[in-house]
Design goal:
The complex is a heterodimer of chains A (about 325) and B (about 325).
Chain A (H helix, E strand, L loop, with lengths): L8 H13 L4 H29 L3 H7 L11 H8 L1 H34 L6 H13 L4 H11 L7 H4 L6 H14 L2 H9 L4 H9 L4 H16 L3 H6 L10 H17 L1 H10 L2 H35 L3
Chain B lengths: L1 H8 L4 H8 L7 H22 L10 E2 L8 H8 L1 E2 L3 H8 L2 H33 L3 H12 L6 H12 L5 H8 L14 H26 L3 H9 L4 H26 L6 H6 L8 H4 L2 H10 L4 H29 L7
Antiparallel strand pairs in B: 1-2
Helix pairs in contact in B: 1-12, 5-16, 6-10, 6-12, 7-10, 12-16, 15-16
The chains are: A mainly alpha (about 325), B mainly alpha (about 325).
């Protein structure tokens, strides 16, 4: 906290004293702490709740509804997931594949344009800058996007439909550009040029190795976006191509099927009761959420870091 | 996420570019290499941002697919121009005013909450005496940002399900009647506002926190020596220094006032028909017109209105903010 130097302890003490003097009153501190503990619980408890439901037995859910304290625990839902791995497992691999491919593609697209825009004398810099601003202000809308992607590029029912449209955005390019502009010393690029390296070589061998913070930031943005994406699958993948579904969309389609079953409850009663449908859906939610919930605390500094990287004016 | 997009736009200012441009330069070998390097991304922008822009002609045509011909032929040659007829029919339909009202009202509430709550919480969390507690709470409230609306809709369902949900269990245990949550429109404005706040406040709070922790501590020290109270410090130092960030967020939100989060209004409500009066927004309408009734013309007419109005509002909001405070503003 203190910014004073170590060899002047009296000043340091004064500064510490100031900090201590400037703290909020104990009562206010207790109030604020209480508020934040409540807020933290509010965000955390739903995840815990769904996790408890997913390990409750189907019978206790049927008798008492969803509860934080189920009568009986059971891993039947996860066992059932494992049994239906030809469908669920496939969806899991789809999600991973789309996430990895999309992130890599997105990183290539954003970093190359970001680097080009960061070169102050680049011939097309003004043109490209306008080119990336306009899509922020105006777009053709959903219908146009849908028709062009399906009728012109023929992306319907392909993995590409879930990868390509989200791979790049103005925002990512600008963060990349700002980072290259502010943290890569010109002398490094000059030295590469003097040694006769091409721009591609300078970019790959000199610039990228010292740009890991921004690569990590944009990479994580892309990773979380692709992992959480479901709208692409909803638009472009129809129900005859179930093998293409990512996990997020499996959750949506299962919800539809379950409400269909509920409508025809009389006919389905016996069949539905034998399957752990209620708890199984929550188990899929956990399969989606757990990787995020376990990893984001380690990555969140990159998200905050990305802000400061991007916030520096270029 | 939303904020980041905002914070960076200012650096895109075209005025700066004009200064750099000075006079036309020759096209060097370096430029050639850089052009090649950025070519894939430029092609991406053309393919996924610019070519779909021509799709706004849908709004002025009566689109008819001609079998055996390409889509472009069907759209540009085969389909008839109908002028503003699509818009006329759109405004005759009884739902549309309701849909506009929903979109705008929800967004106004979201803007008000989105500007006040995270700023207040960010100031409060930086005041906590226990750094550890602040860190844990910050991490925890950041979580919803990383979840999709599909997942969140299951969380909501776990609480609101009519026969199994926790809230109904509690109501029954207290001797009340079960509430059919997904059939009762009167609760949903509150539920949607609550869920939107729940999902977004953590991220905005972290954004403001990053700005607050970046403020030079000596400002506060000198304020304390001058005898300023906590409240005065907050009013005199923290909020003025947060103002640029707040105004950028505000401008972008105003520009998005006709847009809505499709996941929130479609997934969280489980697309329940009884709720449609209070939950249908423009994006939901556009989606349903396209995917469920294949009405390309209405759907794109709404998109076009939404886009144009949003663009104009963004420019107006930027002007207003700049008029009040020349330092803030987007561009």
């Amino acid at each position: 906290m203190s910014t004073t130097t170590a060899h002047k302890p009296n000043i340091k003490e004064t500064a510490d004293g100031l900090v201590r003097f400037n703290q909020i009153k104990p009562f206010t501190n207790v109030m604020f702490s209480g508020l934040f503990i409540i807020l933290a619980l509010m965000t955390f408890l739903p995840v815990l709740f769904v996790m408890i439901i997913s390990i409750s037995s189907e019978a206790s859910v049927a008798n008492n509804g969803y509860s934080f304290f189920p009568e009986e625990l059971s891993l039947a839902s996860y066992a059932y997931l494992w049994e239906s791995r030809s469908y669920i497992g496939r969806a899991f691999l789809n999600s991973i594949g789309i996430t990895v491919a999309g992130t890599l593609l997105g990183l290539v697209l954003t970093s190359t344009l970001g680097y080009s825009l960061s070169r102050p004398n680049f011939y097309f810099k003004p043109l490209y800058t306008i080119m990336i601003i306009i899509p922020m202000l105006f777009s053709g809308g959903l219908v146009a996007r849908y028709m062009v992607n399906t009728q012109v590029y023929h992306l319907k029912n392909t993995y590409w439909s879930m990868i390509l449209p989200g791979a790049c955005s103005t925002f990512y390019v600008v963060i990349m550009r700002t980072f290259f502009q502010t943290t890569i010393p010109d002398s490094i690029i000059e030295s590469g040029k003097i040694d006769g390296a091409s721009q591609l070589r300078i970019f790959v061998q000199l610039v990228l190795p010292i740009s890991l913070p921004v690569i990590a930031t944009i990479g994580l943005f892309l990773t979380f976006n692709y992992w959480n994406a479901w709208y692409g699958a909803m638009l472009y993948v129809d129900s005859n191509h179930r093998t293409l579904y990512p996990l997020q969309y499996v959750l949506i389609s299962i919800e539809k099927n379950a409400s269909f079953m509920a409508m025809n409850e009389d006919h389905f009663m016996e069949g539905a009761m034998s399957l752990p449908t209620e708890t199984m859906r929550m188990a899929i939610v956990m399969v989606v959420v757990l990787p995020i919930a376990c990893s984001y605390p380690f990555f969140q500094r990159y998200f905050v870091g990305g802000l400061t990287v991007g916030a520096v004016k270029g | 996420m939303a904020f980041l997009r905002k914070s960076n736009v200012e650096s895109l200012s075209l005025k700066g570019e004009a200064a750099i441009r000075r006079k036309r330069r020759r096209f060097t070998w370096d430029d050639f290499e850089l052009t090649l390097l950025s070519l894939p991304t430029v092609l991406w922008f053309i393919a996924f941002c610019y070519i779909p822009m021509f799709g706004i002609v849908f709004a002025f045509k009566n689109y008819k697919y001609k079998p055996g011909k390409s889509f472009m032929y069907s759209l540009f040659v085969h389909s008839k121009w109908v002028g503003l007829k699509n818009f006329k029919f759109l405004f005759k339909s009884p739902d549309i005013m309701n849909i506009f009202r929903n979109t705008i009202c929800y967004n106004l509430v979201f803007i008000c909450i989105g500007v006040t709550v995270p700023v207040a919480l960010a100031i409060m969390i930086t005041q906590l005496r226990s750094r550890k507690l602040a860190k844990v709470c910050q991490t925890s409230v950041f979580l919803p940002h990383f979840l999709s609306w599909v997942v969140v809709s299951y969380f909501v369902y776990a609480f609101l399900s009519t026969d199994k949900g926790l809230i109904n269990s509690i109501i029954v245990a207290l001797g009340g009647e079960r509430i059919m949550w997904y059939q009762e429109p009167k609760y949903w404005p509150y539920i949607l506002i609550f869920m939107n706040t729940w999902k977004t406040f953590g991220y905005s709070m972290v954004v403001y926190m990053a700005t607050i922790t970046g403020i030079d501590n000596s400002l506060y020290e000198s304020a304390v020596i001058d005898g300023a109270s906590k409240w005065q410090q907050c009013k005199g130092i923290t909020i003025p220094l947060l103002r640029p960030v707040i105004s950028i967020m505000f401008i972008m939100n105003v520009g998005n006032i006709f847009a809505s989060d499709f996941g929130l209004f479609f997934q969280v409500t489980r697309d329940s028909n009884s709720l449609i009066n209070v939950t249908q927004t423009l994006d939901v309408y556009v989606h349903k017109a396209l995917m469920q009734s294949n009405n390309y013309n209405y759907s794109s007419a709404v998109s076009l209105l939404q886009n144009t109005a949003g663009c104009i509002l963004l420019l107006i909001a930027n002007r207003v903010v700049k008029f009040i405070d020349p330092e803030s503003g987007l561009f």
